[in-house]
Amino acid sequence: MMKFRFRRQGTDPQREKIKQELFAFNKTVEHGFPHQPSALAFDPRLQLMAIGTKSGAIKIYGAPGVEFTGLHKDTTAVTQMHFLPGQGRLLSLLDDNTIHLWELVAGPPRELGGVKKEGVVSLNEVGSYSLPGRPGIESCSATRVTVLLLLKSCDLLCIGTEGGGVYFLELPRLLLKDNLTLPQDQITQSLPDDYRCGKSLGPVESLQEHPQQSGKILIGYSRGLVVLWDLNARHADQLFLGKQQLESLVWERSGSLFVSSHNDGGYSVWSVTSGNACNPQPVSSTIPYGPFPCKAINKILWRTTQAGSPVLLYSGGMPRASYGDRHCLTIQQDKDHVTLDFTSRVIDFFTVHSVEQEKEFDDPSALVVLLEEELVVIDLQTPGWPSLPTPYLAPLHSSAITCSCHISSVPPKLWERLVNAGRATCNYELIWPICGGKNLAPPPKQQELLLTGHEDGTVRFWDASGVALTPLYKLSTANVFHTDCDPCDDPQDPGNDPDMQQEEEWPPFRKVGCFDPYSDDPRLGIQKISLCKYSNKLLVAGTAGQVIVLGLNDERSDHSVDVSVVDLLQDREGFTWKGHDRLEPRLKPAPFPPGFQPQVLVQCLPPASVTAVALHAEWNLIAFGTSHGFGLFDYHRRNAVLARCTLHPNDSLAMEGPLSRVKSLKKSLRQSFRRIRKSRVSGKKRTITTPTSKVQEANAALAEQEEVAPVQRRIEPRSADDSLSGVVRCLCFADTFLRDGTHHGPTLWAGTNSGSVYAYALEVPGVGSGRACERGGASESSTCVEAVLGKEIQLMHRAPVVSISVLDGRGKPLPDPYEASQDLAIAPDMTNAHSVLIASEEQLKVFSLPKVSAKTKFKLTAHEGCRVRKVALVVFSSAVQEDYSEHTLVCLTNLGDMHLFNIPGLRPQVRYDCIRKEDISGIASCVFTKNGQGFYLISPSEYERFSLSAKVLTEPLCSVQLDRPLEFTLASDGTTTQPQANGTHKNQMGHVEGRSEHTHTHAPETPSSLSSPVLETPLDSPLSCADLTLDSTGELTVEDVRDFLTTVDEAENNLKNIKEEEGRSPGILIN
Question: What residue spans carry the Basic and acidic residues bias annotation (predicted)?
Answer without folding.
Answer: 992-1003
